[in-house]
Structures are given as structure tokens and as C-alpha cells.
Amino acid sequence: MNVSLGFSQLKDPILATNEAIGQAIIGLKNAPATLAFIFTSIEFAHPLVLRVANNLLGEIPILGCSSLGIMTNQGVFKHGFAILLLSLSQQTFFNVAAVKDINKKTPLLSGKELGDKLLFGFKNVPRSLSIILSDKLITEGTPLINGLQESLGNSFPLIGASPSDNFGNHKTYQYLNQEMLSESCSGILFGGKFNFGFGIKHGWKPLGKMRCVTSSSGNVIKEINGLAAVKLYEDYFAKNTPDLAKELRRISIYYPLGIYLPGEKEYLLRNIISIKDDGSLVTQGDIPQNSKIRLMISTQDSRLAAVVAACEEAKRSLKAQKIKFLLVFDSAARFSILRKQNDIELCVIKELFGENTPLIGIYTNGEQAPLKSINYLGRTYFHNQSINILAIGEQ
Amino acid sequence: MNPFVYLGVCLVFAILGISLLYKVQRLKELGDKVTALNFSLEEMDEQAKLIMRTDMELNKAQEELDKKISGLDTLQKLSREISTTLEEKQIFKKINNQYVEELGFEKSLAFLWKTLEREFHLYLCLGYSQDESLKIKAAINANKDYFLDLIKTGSTASSEFIPEGALSKNKINQLFLVRSFIICPVLAQEGDQGFIFVGTQNVETSITKGDQEFISILANQIGQTLDNARLFEKTWRSQQELEIKVEERTRQLTVALEEVKKISRRKSDFISSVSHEIRTPLTSIKGYAAILLANKLGTLPDEIRSRLEKINRHSDELVHMVNDLLDISRIESGKVEIRKEALSLRTIADKVADLFSEQLKTKNIDFSSNIPDDCQEILADRSQIERVFINLVGNALKFTPQNGKIDINANRANKIIQIDVKDTGFGIPQDAQESIFEEFFRVDNTINQEVKGTGLGLTLVKHIIEAHQGRIWVKSKVGEGSTFSFTLNTTK
How much is the ipTM here? Predict the structure, then answer.
């Protein structure tokens, strides 16, 4: 496997595309490019950009998305065009696909449809990993995963992310070949000779009494300990619902809910998206009824320790294999908390994997990855505020 | 019942009772512990609430502090960039996406009100497409009264505080396609005024007082720089006008100078030709006078002789004057070739002293020359420079009364030698000093009334010195004497 990176910050999207792809092609040193991951800032999300990329790359499969920021070995950038160009061996199989207009279908069915599309041509080929990129506006991330798992297998490793925009709640875009999609989910399925390891961590610690979700439905928590769910936040922050609603985004980022998962080292985090009139809390990702939950808190040190832990876990699961490249899905909430120091996590990753390990990443509004404990049988869960490091290696 | 059995049953009951009592006691103790634990848990939960609230306040304060530091840093950089700009349009070009983002926004616009066109003109557009900016410009001009009022009152509008007016927060949000904004007037002392807008679509952004202050500072800075730029332009334009005027005047003066030179050349030519024409008959007059005085045509009566001697003397003066005039004319027209050679200054001084020895003796005038060794050698035309010395020493002798003093001094600076001819004569009045080198100028004093002169000597001296690339000037005080100084080049 040969890997090459290209990145440009030129203001003109077409010139930037040319520059970044030029760098990547040169970096591949005559090896035939077989697959490209393209990540761009929101202003580069344009069909013309993809058409140009497709022409320059000779119509190889392209998978990617827009994001509020891009991470590469060079740094963290709010504006730019990044490409990770791969030359995969013939023993590595892959298939790219997308499911469109998810909001017009149910997320479960959409997930299943994407899974079926990804499986096309994979008969008799051992499957390794699927990576998916779904629209940020799809709030029901859990059923989408469930649908995919119905198709790919409940314990099949699934790593994914919902790319974020620049906090404007506008559209996010998914790229598949030369198509720029929205309200969609695009993905790739790898098989054959393909090795990977991943680590996902957040660094938030529980604080206060454990409580029980006494009534919930999907991603809506109606009651906690028999009281309206919003009461928990009202009590903790001494604010009434309207005041809470005003600061919800900040409170939700700094103090998310954590679901207790027996056997897991960290709680599973849930951001609060909104407060309903009846005091229910709408979260990103499901919270099953009877879940034991606590409010969570973090410090910069605990968050950075989580990055270290995620890197080490990814390394550990790859064992002694040579790491060829890293895909980083880092929560936009973390980006927002770090503010001007937003490259500090990148520095930690580079320190642990080495300065020259090719790295490309985006900022996300929800991450998907399996839980590690045996209790969960390798099922993929929807995470919030986490950093998900996927390391691809070669023996 | 067997008493032993009865006793045994009683004992069992007693043991059970005691055990029950013990268990009840234990349960009560455990219950107390659970209550205490619950109490502790509740207490810890309350503490957790306090920690959360404190942490939130700390995070908020930290965020605000970070924002302020970043804002101040950005403002400082921007101020430095803007304040060095002296062109109106360039001021706005210095504000780029990066600066706006560092201030916490991603969109920015700046408009200036053009009084003549009666509309707002766009000077800065960041974060909008061309179509969007055109639409916004049209909408702003459609609501121009609102924005003009903001400028007039100097009020800042933001999504947190909207001054009373026709536009609501939502309408402004829609107009500028944002969720949060600040609009701040750009007030200049003179010329067009306007406003700067910054905004964001970020739902997380809430405008703080600090944000408003930063944008106000930026708007003030732009206003001041606009004033500076306009003042600079005004000054520059005045300077340009002045330069044009100076150029025009210089051109006129050059033309006039050319005219003067032409006239001067004509004058020199005229003097030259007239002098030549005069010299020929003068020579005849002088010749005939000499023949008559030599009694070659018979002895002359004394009266005729004395008249003839006068004719002869006046003819000499006239010849002298004509020669001077011819020399001046030749030097002016460049017809005289100055043949420079190394000369000994001391030798020249001695020669002049020797020439005037009789007169010096008659008037009992003390003559001295002080010429240091490093001033010995001058580079000059021998005959011309001797005329200079003869003229200057002759003048000094003429205007210095009995028992006076005449000094020739020299000193050197680099390759220039300055020679001073100093006398203790009557001196020259201040108002005459400037004209003394002009042709036919004679100082109005008793000596000049008594002693005849052409008024061409010093003019000739000046021309000779200037032909040697030197300079001549006079310092004098009536009653104390005069010093004529001139410069010549040295050979070394």
C-alpha cells in the first residue's frame, strides 16, 4: 500500500484542488492511485471541485465530506482542500456507495440500503471494516447504525462520523466519486488484505449521583428518576428551562450526559440537542430506557489523556504492523472547547505515531465505533465528543 | 410436658429472641448507615452541583478572557496594518478573513455614504458571494435612513442591543444572512462616513459587550485612518499643485534668464564692438596729442600744453576704461582663455607690494603679507590673477588714509585657499556692499568724488575670480576698514 497526502489553502477552489491533488500524485511516486479520501472546508464544497478532482485522478473512487476544519500533518485548518491518495494492493478489496435522501426514508432502512450497496461484489471475499460518513443533520444516528449492522452483521466493525459544518447548522456535504450529496450517508467497505486498529476515547468523568432514565424513546429522554428530564440540568446549573435553553449548546458540550456501560472504561456520552416543551431532552444518539446516567465533566488534561489513550489503543490493536496512515474523526465540540489551541490534540497524535505518519482528519458531530468490552459483542455505537483514531497498517 | 423439654423450648425461644433483637439492632444500625450514606451521597451530589456551576463560570470566564486576548491581539495587528495606510480603499483591503475570524466572526462588510450619489457604497466584503453582497447593498440603500441614523447618532447596533428604529434584530439578521451581528458607525471628521458590519451564522456565538467594544475600536481606528488618508491626499494634492506652480514659475524664470543672457550677450557684444570702435580714434587722439606735446609741430603755449596734457590724461583713462570693458566682455562671453598654472602666492604678493611701494611710502601705509607655507601654491592664470591683486591692493591703497595698514592674509581649507585683502580704510556702507561688484557702481564717498575711477575694477575682479571657479565677497564697516576675500584652488 502506498499513501500520499495533498493539501492546499488557496482561495480559489479549483486552484486549491489542482495544487493538493498535484502534491498527492507526486507523493505517490508513479504508483497507480486506486482510492482517494477528500476532505474540504465548507466553502470548497462545490460539484465543480469534485468534477475537477475526478478528472485529475482518472475517475478512481472518491469518498469524502465537508467539515468545519481539516486536520493533516501540516496542522489544523479552517479553510482548505485535503486529499489522501491510496495505492492499494490487488489483495485489498473495497467498494464505495451512498444512500441518498435519508430524511425521506427511515434511518434504519437507509442504513440497511447502504449496507446492501456496500456488500455488492463482496461475495466470497472476507470483509474487514466499513467507514461511513453521514450528514450532520441526521439526528437519529443509532437507527442508521442498526440498519447497517443488519446488513453487514451485528459485530462487523463499523467506524464512522457525522461531519460538522461551521456551527451554522447548515448543510454538510458527502462526496462520492464526482457526486456532492446532502442528507445522505456515504461509505466504504474494505475486505481482503486489510489491517486496521482503532481507539476511541473522550476524557469526560462522571460527577454527581447516578440516575436512571425512567422513560425514553429513541433519542428523546422523557424522564430521569421519575421527573422531567430537564430537571436534572435545572438542578445542577440552577437555571430555569428558558435560561438553560439559551446556553444549552455550551452546557451540553462541557457537561454532556454519560451512560454507564458495565465493562467499559468510559461512559458513553450524549449531547443534548434541544429541550422539548414537556421537559424532555433530545440527545444525539439513543439513550435506552433504564440506562444509568450521570452528568459528566472534563478538564484539558483529562481530554488530552483521552487522546493519548485512543492513540495507544489504536496502536495496540494493530500490534506490530507498520502504520501506513491515520484517519482521525475528532469531535467538533472538542475543537470548540480548545478554541485557539485546537492543534494541541494533533501534536499529541503526531508525537505518538511519529511526525511522518500520513494523517488526515475532520471535525465531527458524532462518531461511530464499536465498544471494546466483550459484553457488547463488538457492536458499533454512536458516540459524542470523542476522538476516534483509525490506524491502517500493513504487515 | 417434660420440664427439661419446656426449659429447652424456653431456651430456644430466648436464644431466638436475643438473636432477633440482635438482628433488629443490626438492621437498625445498617439502616442508619444507609441513611448516612444516602445523606452523604446527597451531600456529594450537592457538592457536584456546586462544582459544575463553578466549573461553568470558570469556563465562561476563560472563554471570555481568551476571546479578549485574541481580540486585542487581532486589533493590535489590524491597527498596525491600517494606520500605515494612506489610501482610502487600501484601508479596507487590509481587513481580511483571518482577522475577522480571529475576532469571532466570519462575515464582514463596510459601507461609506456618498453624499453626492446619495447612496451607500461597498468598500469591504468578506464571507459573501458577489450576488449576496449586491443584494445586501441594495437592501441597505432601501433602508438607508436607518443606517444614516446610526451614523448620525454614533450608535452601535448588535444582536444583543438594537437602538430604536425601523429595523428589528430579525430583519437585520435576514438582511445580512447571519444569526449574530454588530454594526458600528465609522465616523470621520471630514468627508464620507459609513459603518462596518461583522456577523456570524454560528449558533453558538453570543455577542458580548467586549465584542462590541472591539468592533467600536476597529471602527474608530478606520475613521481616524480615513481622516489621515484624506488629509494626506489633500496635502499631497496641494503639494502637487504647488509643484506645478513652481515648475511653471521655473519655466518662466528660465525663459526670462535666457532672455537676460541674450540681452547680456548683446550688451557684451555691443560694448565690445563700441569699445573697439572707440579705441581706434582714441589711439589717434592720443597719438596726435603726444606729437603735439613732443613739440614736433612747434612749441606750444602753456595753456594749450596744459589742455593737451588733460586730453592725454583723459584719453589714458578712457583707454583704461575701454580695456576693462573689453576684458569684462571677453570674460563674460568666454572668449578669454584662462590658462591655469601653479603660481607662488607669496611671489605675487611681493610683486604687488613692489609695484605699489612708492605710494605706500608716500602715505606711510604699513603693508604686510601673511601667507602660510600650505597656502603657497595656487592654480591660476598669472596675468589675470595679478590684475586681481593689483585692483584690490590699489583700491585699498586709494581708500586708506595716511599711516594706515594693508594686510594680505591667506588660509587653507582642503584644496581651497582663501585670500583676504584687509585695509584700515574708510569702509563701505552696508547698503553699498551688495552692489560693489556691479558695473559702474561707485560708493558715494569723498574719496570717490576726488579720485576718478571707472567703476569697472571690482566687476572685472569678480569676473576673473569666477572664471577661476572661485568666489569673492566683502566684509566692511564704515570707519574701520574693509576686507575683500576671495577663493582660489590650490594645486595639491
Answer: 0.84
